[in-house]
Amino acid sequence: MPRIAKKKINHQLAGTDWSPESELVGLEFELVTNEDVLLYPQYTIGLHAWFLDQVRSTDPELSAYLHDGESEKPFTISALDGELVSSGKQLKLFPNRTYRWYVTGLSGRVTTWLAQWMTNLPPEVNLRNAPLQIIACNVVFAPTTYAQLLNSQLEANIALQFLSPTSFRRKGHHLPLPVPVNVFHSYLRRWNDFAATPVDQDTFLAWVDEYVLITRHQIATVKVLAGKKGAVTGFTGAVEFGLAKEAYDKPEFCTMFSALGKLAPYCGTGHKTTFGLGQTRLGWSSQAVADVPNVESLLAKRIEELTDIFKGQRKRTGGDRAIEVASTWATILARREMGESLQVVAEDLQMPYETVKTYAKLARRALKVE
């Protein structure tokens, strides 16, 4: 494939106050290709891996933390925003169209690294031999701190747009609904991990459950791919949250409600936010309901269907291990059915090729049992 001629990357920092104390920031990358490009449906795995490789090549210690650190990841990445269409079993990108990709930092350590990285970016993002030239990098969510969010103007109503499918885990299943306690629990987990002023989770969430209301919404649900393995039923659209009048008896919680709403664009909502899910923006928009390319939706549905079959066969064993195996088998077999090589699947799942090959055989055998 011909390489794209290198050009100087445009950095947009005007109007930003990116101080060394900044703990939160959001970047937007503008990407282009000079010819038709085909991507596999789970390409966000490649974006995730490419970003972590950028960290590893410049700060191995931070890379190890992002791989093996605490459960809450101090960054998010989006899927590509732009004209992607299904082309057979792949996704097609068009030449000379701009595709936008978003990366955020949620801790001072990551935000400091992003500031340094931004001054010496590579010329392109390479997704499995699909080079996308970086033509610009813009600050879209201003550098700030958790304390500044907490001390900012109180907002009694918070409208949020969920641009990519968003879902929560509840009793071992996906919950594709913007239930206030789940939404704000999602933000509070990040806050309590990275802010210097943690909040008592049980007390605050009980207050949210009692006094935070959905004042309007426009949402739709869709099945999508979920990170490296499995599929998720998520929602997209817009939701507005407000406060009951009794909520103001706890002014400190009203302040936290407002701060968490402003945190949402930085940290995303729900799970799998480091693989493109849960992308969130402030404000109301009736256009926020997003379409998912057919090929991605079909693969997600097939993975979910196979996962249910394999879980059903493992009812007697039960437990998290059985669910994990069912999801892994389903992902491997569904992607193989879509024409992907087992070698590529093994690389994405970071599993030995022979193990993936064995799992594929076992999954096919299990289907014949059905």
TrEMBL record:
Ranges for domain CRISPR-associated protein Cas6 C-terminal: 160-280
Which Pfam families does the UniProt record give?
CRISPR_Cas6 (PF10040), CRISPR_Cas6_N (PF19308)
This protein is called CRISPR-associated endoribonuclease Cas6
Species name? Anabaena azotica FACHB-119
This protein's gene is called cas6
Keywords assigned by UniProt, alphabetized: Antiviral defense, Endonuclease, Hydrolase, Nuclease
User: What is the top-level taxon of the source organism?
Assistant: Bacteria
| All residue ranges annotated as the CRISPR-associated protein Cas6-like N-terminal domain in the record | 39-82
Asked whether the keyword Nuclease is assigned, the reply is yes
